[in-house]
Here is the input.
Amino acid sequence: MEVKRDILWRVSLSYIAVAVLCVVILVRAFYIQQVEGKYWRNMNDSLHEKLEPIEAERGTIYSADGEMLSTSIPQFDVYVDFGADGVRENDGKRFFNSLDSLSYQLSKLFKDRNADEYKRILRDGYNRADRYFPLLKKVNFEDYQRLKLFPLVKLGKNKSGFIADVKSVRLNPYQLLAYRTIGLDRENSQKVGLEETYDSLLTGRRGKRLVRYIAGGISIPVDEDYQIEPENGKDVVTNIDTHIQDITETALMNEMISNEAEHGCAIVLEVKTGKIKAIANLGLRNNGSYWEDLNYAVQPTEPGSTFKLVTMLSLLEDKKISLTNMVNLEGGRWTVNGQTVIDAEEHDKSDNTVTAKRAFEVSSNVGMAKLAYSGYAATPSQFVNHIRKLGFDSATGVDLAGEGRPKVYRPGKPGWSANTVPWMAFGYNITVSPLHTAMMYNAIANNGRMMRPYLMTTVKKDDIVIKETKPVVVAEKICSDETLQQLQECLKGVCADSGSTAFKLFRGTPYKVAGKTGTALVADGKRTYADEVFQSSFAGYFPANDPQYTCVVVIVNHPHAIKHVGAAVAGPVFKDIADKLYAMYVKQPAPVQYASVTTTKDSMNYLYAGAQYEVKKIMSTLNVPYADAGGNAEWATVSKEANRPVIQAESVHDKQMPQLAGMSLKDAIYICENMGLKVDIKGRGKVVSQSVNVGETINKGTQVQITLN
Here is the structure.
């Protein structure tokens, strides 16, 4: 019995001991997990080191005139490691001694909290011993440099606990200007435009660094000696000229707003090289504003009447017609194979029988359809082969990601019908991009040589050119010289012959234009022809006698728009662009010479301008005899009449652009800024030309470029 009791006592004691041990273990586990958990997790994190990549700085995209179109800037997220030894030593003496002044400086610089709030936030973080407390987000470079001089922070990260996480943020300084073409490079967003096209060049090569992971899995550098520096990306220089781009964007925007259009684009090419000097794309947003939301310039649509140039080339090259062949316009309506062709552009219906050239000039769908049907109904492949030879069945090859592929139907293939030829003759049953159209018209301007449009001109590394793009000839001659001359005559006739679709638009311009209007109904899946959404377009080049620039404008209007024909919607955009480019880059300024102070008669013309009292003072000081016709005007000009200087009054009105030629830069800026104009300056010396024509109505905020000699 005693033995049994002894055994039971020992078993019970052992059981109690095991139970107590289990309770102790559970309590200790709970204490470690809940009370000391943060400490041990931090300790665990601090024992993990690994190599992580260092992102390279992305290269910059530049314009042809040296402006930054897209660049990277550093941005800093600032954290505080309140568990750092330097912060907590001597019971945080260094931290608390700096707390008041640091809180005040932070409040003064960032203005998002007052000093007391910053003081409370920092004290609470210290009390919790937070290892990676997020204090500030998205701090710019300038503010970060100031922050580094603040009390405590200036002691360095080991003593202050302040840690900066540097990120590179992509910035488009010009915002709207060519925004879609330049493209996007945003975190978690798909790249587009040039950012995508030249991503491999812009990205550079990653580096490496050794980091230690602390609380929350956050990494901090631990050994700056063990670090492979990244190789920064290369810079890309484009053909885009910011002045031409601004002119193009502004002209397109004004018309889009005026006509409440849905979307549109405008392209400017340099004739001899095919360089894209400007490419603007605007789409209507839900809030009623416009933005570069899609690159419409490279999206294929039914081109409409601007495609009639291809029809004329085919007919003339195959000797199917001559420009003097007669065609009956049938009063603007013609039925073929059960379908009716209708003229979209208004013209004189009383004169039904006209020449082929005249049918082109008045943009008659009926005329072009009848000519093409007569010439190619039996041999449609002959017509299609011309279209394919001109490259309309493939992409242009422009160095811009996202270009859509055109669609050209072929005989015997799906989509082909008995009426494909007559409808294709005036730009239906085929889809091509506005850039395709620009490429074609540019070839006519360039005496038959077709150039590939391109955007990138050079790649630079540390300002050293390592790659250069040369102009590429797609076709040395797209047609015979005889056909080319006839096509040029047709395009000039559209803009110069009375009664043609663009005659009124360009009447009185100081330069000649060769071009073609276009008006087409749009059906793109969302829209049907019944919605009466018209696409207005104008394609052409200028000056017609010595082409420098090719320009194509395409605008899709809102349903049932009253104003929708090409000459009324797209034409004014073309003219606005052409007017300014002619004044700034094409027109040769008259030479400005110094007035002679000798007794010999001056055979040279000259022109000076300025404040009248200053002009007279100079003439008197130099003892130059002059005729005074200045009256009481504030401003005056000096020019030669009958071999002597004559001072004449120069009128300056608030609403009309004054004559600036001959003025000093100081006087020109004084006048323009007093009128509320924005001035852009090129060159040095006296003013020789201005981008806004003399006498043109102006508003405050209008931009004018002044060219000096």
About this structure: The CA atoms of residues 441 and 540 lie 6 Å apart. Confidence is low (pLDDT under 50) at residues 590-604.
